[in-house]
Amino acid sequence: MDDSKDIYKERRIELNRIFEKILGSSNVYFQPPSNVRMRYPAIVYTRIGIEPIRADNGVYKMTPEYEVVVIDPDPDSAYVFQVAQLPLCRHTRHYEQDNLNHDAFQIYY
């Protein structure tokens, strides 16, 4: 297996651990299939892109971009503000669905 693939997988697992630490639980889901029954509060995240950094006519580094959604019945969830403080993280929207509050972010990690 290519070493660069291992690096990106390790970084994603590190990001998962950061989310678990924020929640204080394992209610963190990476690209969950539709049949997974989630427990709340939860953090759900999906890779949505890759940002290349170019130098010398080539790609010097690639940074995966993730959409992260904090889902909590509490509209004043402290988890939202903890995720918002992560480096290279930007809040994109808030919405309500099924009596749950969803706060979406984009993060490069």
Q: Could you characterize the architecture of this molecule?
A:
With 109 residues, this protein is of the alpha+beta class. It has one domain (3-108): STM4215-like (2-Layer Sandwich), CATH 3.30.2000.30. 26% of the residues lie in helices and 46% in strands. It has 2 helices and 5 strands, in the order H-E-E-E-H-E-E. Strands 1-2-3-5-4 form a 5-stranded mixed beta sheet. A hairpin with a 2-residue loop joins strand 2 and strand 3. The radius of gyration is 15 Å and the shape is elongated. 16% of the residues are buried.
How many separate domains?
1
The name of the CATH topology is STM4215-like
Strand order, biggest sheet?
Answer: 1-2-3-5-4
What is the share of helical residues?
25-40%
How many H/I helical runs? 2
- What are the segments in which pLDDT stays under 50 over at least 5 consecutive residues? none
pLDDT averaged residue by residue: 94
Give the helix/strand class: alpha+beta
Task: Give a quick summary of the entry.
With 109 residues, the protein is of the alpha+beta class. It has helices spanning 3-23, 78-84, and strands spanning 28-30, 42-55, 58-72, 89-97, 100-108.
Layout of secondary structure:
Layout: H1 3-23, E1 28-30, E2 42-55, E3 58-72, H2 78-84, E4 89-97, E5 100-108
Parallel strand pairs: 1-2
Antiparallel strand pairs: 2-3, 3-5, 4-5
